[in-house]
Structures are given as structure tokens and as C-alpha cells.
Amino acid sequence: MATPTSAVATKLRLASAYQPVEKTELNPLEYPCGVLAVIPALHDIQYYQGLLANAHNFSSNSQCDIFEIREGQGKWQRSLDDVGIEGYLLRCSKTLPTLQAIFVTLKKHPATSFGLQLSMSRHALNSVLSQFKMSPQFVAHLLGEPDYWAPGDFAHCGKSQDLKQIEFFCQHPRWNIHQKQIPWSIYMAYDIPQGCATYFVVSEENYASNETVKERLSETFKPEMSESLSANDPFMLHVMVAHESLIQSKSVTTDLRYKLYDQLDKVDEYAAAPSAHRRNLETLTTSLHIISQNADSLIASADMAATIADLMSSAHDRFVTAHRGDPNALSSNKSIEISDSIRYLLNSIRAEKRWLLSYKNRKDIAMNLVVFNLVTQQDSQTNLAIALDTKRDSKSMNVIAALTMCG
Asked: Which residues pair with 204 in a beta bridge?
């Protein structure tokens, strides 16, 4: 397994260099040993224990927000420190909520594995990971590693071969390549026998989209909204975060579109006046090249967003199948609504990608016109002018030669 760490931020890149994680000697008594979610074919336990052993990855004291839903009512536990987290875990050991979402943040810090420090202490995080039996594969996400691989979509069975746990976790695309964006990652594990969904949401401090998700949770599960049964479907928060992530693309795509249109207007102007100065054509060519690069980046982000939505749909189908015939899990058709919502997001992402591809095609057409038509035409005119000047100079030389001979 590749073991990237020690990210160094340069310019707009979050990380430009990686150094190996120092693996620790395997400790069978520590997380993630004994956790149902461990998959030996994928998970190098010493790697994850090495990440958790780096004290610089963690704050000296925790600060996180926890949102829980019990009997359809939402409640926030704000700014919990180590003592507050310990008390919360004690309550959960007695009775679990329908949904619990732990919101943590990352900030830049030296000597960490990925250049970022988590807003939880090492002790508190180990307690949470162990009690809720979370997948170790999300540990690197928690610590801010940029992930360009597939989302995690796993199911785990007990000794009796019955389905015990469904997991889905991902890192949403960073749409704006011109900003330093700390990864926005989200993990969900659904305990089928207990009927409890546990979330971990990690983002940069004061991340606007993350704060919007918190506000939407508060509004959705107010006391006066008691008839809302969205919490019966564990994928509700996943869909909400994916929706906010897609909304991020609007401003970036709009900016790309108008920059492209501005350059297309200039192409039309130059086409109507082929005598445009060559430096102007060079500037236009450079602008179109930058637009092409940005479009490629957005298309890649759209592809990743579509992959997330597609796998989320498959994971949700697995949940529905596991609860087929359970009236509590599927009451008020909420799971049908969530399924429709995921499909809507997937189709919206695909539509976004189609528009991005059309912008790139229009750029290609404009580039061909500028490079192969306008520039070539201008070069031809220049060559013709040189030829005419040469011809005139030749005639003048002949006259001069004739006059000289006569003299």
C-alpha cells in the first residue's frame, strides 16, 4: 500500500510532496483490530495505527459538534471537548439515537501526516472509532488526505451471515481549482440491528457549505417539523451534503461560461477584421487555453461527483433490500424520496457535464478558427505583402541597373 504523508502546501496545491507513514508495531489491542469493518485485503492495520500514533495529527483538546436525532427530534451538542465527548459516548452506550453526526474540522499544521490537524484529541478519536466500529479506511480522510480513488461502499455480515452493517463514505470533489480547498469528506455506517446511522463529517474551519448543511439539519428537525421522517433513511445526510457540493459548482461553471463567451465575442470581432494585431491573437489563444484547462478540471470533478452519486444509489438499494418488509424503515415513502433524490442528483451532474463538454467543444472550434484560420490568413497576407514589396524592389533595382549602364 502507498503510504503518503507530510503534505507541503505550495501556491494553490494542497500537497506537492509525500513522505512515508511510519508504521508502528502491530498492537492487537488497539483500533482497528477486532472491528467488523476491517477488510484484510484492503486495510493495512499497521498503516492506520501509524497515522493514529502521530500526535501532531490531533489537537490537544477536542472541539466538535454532534447532531443527533431521537424520536424524530433533532438536537445539537455544540463545541464538545474531551469530557463532553466522553459523556456523549456514555449515553450512546445505553441507548443509540436514530442518527448521530459528528462534525469536525481541519486546519493547517506542520509535522502532520497530510499538513492538516484534526479538531479532536487522539484519545477522543480512538474512543469514537472503537465504540462505533468505524472503518479504518476513513482515518486518512479524517486527517485530510486528498483522495482521488473511488468512494467506499461496503456491507458487513455477522457470524450468522446476516447483514449487520452498511457503510458508505466519500470525499466530494473540490470544484474551485483556483482556491486552496481542504477536502470535504463524509462517512456513514448504518447499524442494521440497532437502526442507528453514525456519520463523521470533516471539513475546513467555517466552511460555508458545511455550515449550510448544519443549518438545514436544524431546520428540518425542529419540533414543529415532527412529522418529518427523513431520519428513517440513513442516507438523508449523505444526499444533503452531495446536494450542497453540487451547488458549489454553479459559481465556478458560470464564471467559466462567461469567460468563454467573452473570448468567443473577440474571435467574432477578429474574424470580421482579419488585420487584427498578432499580439491580440496570441492573447486570445492563451485565454482559450486557460479556459480549456479549467473546463477539463470541472469535467473531472463532474465525473467524480457522478461516481459518488452512482455508488450512493447502489448502497441505498442495498439498504432498502435489507429492510424490505420493515414498515418503520420505509414509512411515509421516505426511502423512495431519498432514492429519487439520489437519481435526480446523478442526472443533474450528468447534465452539468454535458454543458461543460459543450463549452469545451466551442472552445476547440474557436481555437481552430484562431490558430488555423485567422493566424494562417494573417500570415498569408503578410507573405503576400512581402512578395509585392520584393517585386517592387526588384523593378527598382532593374531601373537603377539600366540607368547605370546607360551612364
From this structure: 106
Tell whether omega for the bond before 183 is within 30 degrees of 0, i.e. cis. Answer: no
- Residue 387, pLDDT > 70, answer no
Cα–Cα distance, 242 to 186 (Å, whole number): 10
First to last CA, the chain: 92
Please give the Cα distance from 126 to 217 (Å, whole number): 26
CA dist 347 and 133 (Å) reads 34
Write the CB contacts of 102 (distance below 8 Å, at least 6 apart in sequence).
64, 65, 66, 128, 198, 199, 200, 201
Task: Sort 73 into a burial class: Cβ within 10 Å, 0-12 / 13-18 / 19+.
Answer: middle
The answer for residues whose C-beta is within 8 angstroms of residue 11's C-beta and 6 or more apart is none
Rounded CA-CA distance 331/390 in Å is 88
Identify whether the C-beta of residue 284 lies closer than 8 Å to the C-beta of residue 270.
Answer: yes
Q: Is the pLDDT of residue 5 over 90?
A: no
| Residue with the three cell numbers 449523505 | 238
Structure confidence at residue 1 as a pLDDT band (50, 70, 90): very low
State residue 291's pLDDT score: 94
Place of cell 450512493: 312
How many Cα atoms within 13 Å fall on the side-chain side of residue 385? Answer: 7
